[in-house]
Structure formats: C-alpha cells, structure tokens
Amino acid sequence: MAGPREIIGGLSQAFSNTLSISTSPTSTFHTPVGSYMHRGRGHESRLPSKHLKPFATEDIKILLLENINQTARDILNKQGYQVEFLKSSLPEDQLIEKIR
C-alpha cells in the first residue's frame, strides 16, 4: 500500500501534467521567397515599391448618417472633402440612390 508521500507525489505529478503550458513550435515561419523577391539574371532583388498616387480630396464625397459629431464633419470639410450629413439613417432604397 502506498504511503502518504507517494500519494501526494502522485497527485502533484498528475496535477502538474494537467496544467502544463504549451509552447510555440521551435521552427520559424518563413514567407516564400517568390512572394516578395524578383529573380533575374542570376541574382535576387526586391520588387520596386509601389508609389501611391495622390488624389484630390475635393473629388471625394462623404455621406455621414445618424447625426455624426460636428467636429468630425468640420475635420473632413477642412481637408477638402464634400461632406453631406443626415441626422438619421436611410432606408435601403434611399441609401442606394443617395450613394449613386
């Protein structure tokens, strides 16, 4: 028959096994080279970065619904956007017509 020390030791071991914390895998994830590298004439180089084209904010119309804060409207207006706001939402058919 097992003594108190063996019982406590066995319970302690069983308890620690149930609380074991999993660890992350030891291998690391690498992005496939082909997704961001360009191979050409025996060497690899990064693809040129894509240049963003600026746009004119005055060409962008923004529709704000449900009584949006005046400060938000002011910020968008100062940045040159065409801002229209309504105090309530719109039914689906009116919303579709409004954003066309």
Describe the structure in brief.
The protein is of the alpha+beta class. Helices cover 32% and strands 16% of the residues.
What does the model show?
It is a single chain. The protein is an alpha+beta fold and 100 residues long. Helices cover 32% and strands 16% of the residues. It has 3 helices and 4 strands; from the N terminus they run H-E-E-E-H-E-H. It has helices at 4-18, 70-78, 92-99; strands at 37-40, 43-46, 61-64, 82-85. The chain has a two-stranded antiparallel ribbon with strand order 1-2. Strands 3-4 form a two-stranded parallel ribbon. Helix 2 (70-78) links the parallel strand 3 and strand 4 (82-85). The longest helix has 15 residues, at 4-18. The radius of gyration is 31 Å and the shape is elongated.
The run of helices and strands is HEEEHEH
Q: Compute the number of strand runs.
A: 4
| Strand residues, percent | 15-25%
Q: Any idea what the radius of gyration is?
A: 31 Å
Number of helices: 3
- The oligomeric state is single chain
Biggest sheet, spatial arrangement of strands: 1-2
**Biggest sheet record:** 2 strands, antiparallel
Coarse morphology: elongated
Instruction: Quote the distance from N terminus to C terminus.
Output: 84 Å
Secondary-structure class: alpha+beta
* Mean pLDDT across every amino acid position: 74
Helix content: 25-40%
* Uncertain regions spanning at least 5 consecutive residues: none
